[in-house]
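Can you give me the bound-state structure? Components:
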Amino acid sequence: MIFTRASVRLIDLRLRTPFTTSFGTATLLRRPFVVLETSDGRRGVGEVPTLPEPAYKPEVDTPSVLTSLREWLLPSLRNAQHQDGGVADIGALRQSYAWVKGAVFAKSGIEAAYWDLLAQQADVPLWRLWGGEPRSFDVGVSIGGASTDAVLRLAAQAVDRGYHRLKVKIWPGFDRDPVAALRQRYPEMLLQVDANSAYDLESWDRLKQLDEFGLLLIEQPLFDDDVVLHARISRNLKTPICLDESIHSLRDVETAISLWQEGAGLDRLIINIKPPRVAGFAEAIAIAQRCRAAGVQTWIGGMLDSAWGKAMNLQLNGLTAIGLPGDHFSPGGPYFEEDVTTAPLTAANGRVTLDDTARAGSTIDWRRFERMGPELFSLDLRSPTSSGVRMPARP
Ligand code: OSB
Ligand code: MG
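Here's the bound-state model for the whole set.
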């Protein structure tokens, strides 16, 4: 692949319903979208599902992602293309910016745009490139309500729409009540909770109160950068622990597997696979396969992504290694007042079936896309990086 130009557009996505987690309430999301243009006239698009602040974890805020893309990642891609005469494959793409530590969200936007280009060139859906199948699967919703009433209202909307799996946000003091209310109203529902690292080494004890409700999992109760202490408390909880924030790579998953193997047991470890949190789809696929081999259940997480990001995540759900329903939909219809694709994504009766529609099974509405936010910067990828850009020399 030969790239001619890379640009980053900052798209405004306004939530139809505010989303509350232990770290705050989101209403307006300003999202960088990476656009890669090729010598054969194609445009590939990759969303970076940033949040306004780094409150979920480091380097997920919009300013930090824009800096990584502009100062380090895209100039590195330009350098690699210049040295190698093109970017041969996903491996070469990832290698071009592998020297940059962290920046997993920013990296994932470039990788997503590249995958989009590969799917266009091959004229196939992404699930085919990823070794998936045109399968049907249940999808779930994530409920970010600020009170038990709000949670019940959103849950009722989701159930009316046919969803069979609910995830609810909790924090210390807002845990037993919403869960008990949901369980009483929906005795058979697949129910799970997400704490977004709101508990500490004292308050986690409260989570034992959730064991009686038959939850599928408790997601990231402790610190965003911790695996070890999660493994330790897992020995004292019946409900499986699911890791979200603290997994950035297959290597992190290996750490978790060895800790749970020696401790609570692998049936009490679950991994939330969020492609942007593990630098992209290639790493996400490796994690799904490794977990399947180890007997660790997985599902695909979300970041209140646009319909484009969600469409790509649904393609990843074509992998048979991924067994649990993911966070692909919002409880009350579309997430945003306006979105970037030509048609909204839909799930009939809480299920999605993949087909042979090429690309992500969805299409960017370019006129709307260009209206929803400005192009912030662009790079000419045909010329080598100017001497002003600091970067370690490649050996
Ligand atoms: O922890 O899974 C999370 C949204 C923003 C940041 C973190 C998380 C979430 C969600 C929403 O739970 C999932 C979705 O996209 O519907
Ligand atoms: Mg989570």
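A couple of observations. DSSP finds eleven helices and 13 strands in the chain. Residues 62-84 form the longest helix (23 residues).
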